[in-house]
Amino acid sequence: MSWQHRIAEALQTRRQQQRLRQRSLLTPDGAGWLRHEGQRYRNFASNDYLGLSDDARIIDAWQQGAARYGIGAGASGHVTGYLQPHAALEAELADWLGYPCALLFNSGYAANQAVIGALAAQDDRILADKLSHASLLEAASLSPATLRRFAHNQPESLHRLLASPVGGETLVVTEGVFSMDGDSAPLSALHQLTRQAGGWLLVDDAHGVGVQGEQGRGSCWQQDVRPELLIVTFGKAFGVSGAALLCDRQTADYLLQFARHLIYSTAMPPAQAEALRAALQAVQQGDDLRARLAENIARFRHGARQLGLALTPSNTAIQPLIVGEEARALAFSSRLRERGCWVTAIRPPTVPPGTARLRITLTARHTADDIDRLLEALHDAQSE
């Protein structure tokens, strides 16, 4: 079998399964709107939960940072790429979230891969929620440790796995808010069980930080849990991109020696770090935005119940509507677009087989009229 044949066969299989992923060329067109091929749509697919991606304060900070430091870091942080904006952002994040140290990464995917890859050894075990993000599960499966998965958000399932003996260390992995289901992990119970077994808990709070907890400090703060390893990302509520690990000083020193994604990648642009410092301030001062988002979530869920829509039990900005088969999800998404609402169909392998869904996301930028129009579109689309 040639490379070309293997590639063609894989693509054909995806097409036959109704799982072929495609990108759409889009243009932002005002708060909460997109434009595609001349048509304007309400955007219900974005992770920009607080609407900060076009915030003038953050844009200005990036522009000023670029004027002061240039548009790129120029090297790894281990060479000449670690500059004052990086150090300032790390210090501000650590102080805000109550950790001794923060380390910046170029993405949440890179952070998860780097941390797990650097820590896991031959006799260790990684116990991950079965619906954890692909970056976590891939990192665990590629590591020399043994990967076992526990039932989604079920501490009892984790407890059974922890009861088995292990020769090395134990790392328990979960998300704060699950990206495809919108539900929250029972972090207190998971952390208690993990500590009783002498292990560490890693929480990826990409979809919780900025939205959950006091000042948007995230799911862990909201549940009064301080995991040994906390990953926060900046491409959702912060409206920018990048990520950070929060941990103790010794672990940070260790990762500076052994985390390959950190060592062998060009550092985050310093102008981006300046933008993230401004975004952090906007998040900290964003109680009104979080209140508006909560109102939109409540309005949508109330309307969805009246329509008899089978939403998952989520109180977050992620409101999945499970439809089952891939073809049905694609058709549903297409009917919504015909009615001016951009909602993405999520299919396996991103989600388990038989659970293809519309991943509806709400933001603080949506108005009551936007929510009502979405509900009308859902009612009409499901009636066809």
Give a description of the structure.
With 384 residues, this protein is α/β, with parallel strands linked by helices. It folds into two domains: 24-50 and 287-383, Aspartate Aminotransferase, domain 1, CATH 3.90.1150; 56-284, 3-Layer(aba) Sandwich (Aspartate Aminotransferase, domain 2), CATH 3.40.640. It is 43% helix and 17% strand. Helix 12 (287-307) runs parallel beside helix 14 (368-383).
Tags for this entry?
single chain; 384 residues; alpha/beta; Aspartate Aminotransferase, domain 1; Aspartate Aminotransferase, domain 2; 2 domains; 7-stranded mixed sheet; 14 strands
How is the secondary structure organized here?
Layout: H1 3-16, E1 27-28, E2 33-36, E3 39-43, H2 56-69, H3 84-97, E4 101-105, H4 108-119, E5 125-129, H5 134-142, E6 146-150, H6 155-162, E7 170-175, H7 187-196, E8 200-204, H8 219-222, E9 229-233, E10 243-247, H9 249-258, H10 260-263, H11 270-284, H12 287-307, E11 318-324, H13 326-338, E12 341-342, E13 344-346, E14 356-361, H14 368-383
Parallel strand pairs: 3-12, 5-6, 5-7, 7-8, 8-9
Antiparallel strand pairs: 1-2, 2-3, 4-10, 9-10, 11-14, 13-14
Strand content: 15-25%
Total number of β-strand segments? Answer: 14
Structural class by sheet pairing and helices: alpha/beta
Mean model confidence by pLDDT: 96
| Contiguous runs where pLDDT drops below 50 for at least 5 residues | none
Using the 3D structure, state the CATH architecture of the largest domain.
Answer: 3-Layer(aba) Sandwich
Order of strands in the sheet with most strands: 4-10-9-8-7-5-6
Q: Note the gap between the termini.
A: 44 Å
The largest β sheet comes out as: 7 strands, mixed
**Helix share of residues?**
40-55%
Name of the CATH superfamily of the largest domain: Type I PLP-dependent aspartate aminotransferase-like (Major domain)
CATH class of the largest domain: Alpha Beta
Q: Write down the CATH topology of the largest domain.
A: Aspartate Aminotransferase, domain 2
Order of helices and strands: HEEEHHEHEHEHEHEHEEHHHHEHEEEH
Tell me the radius of gyration: 21 Å
What is the count of DSSP helices, taking H or I runs of 4+ residues? Answer: 14
Shape: globular
Domain tally:
2
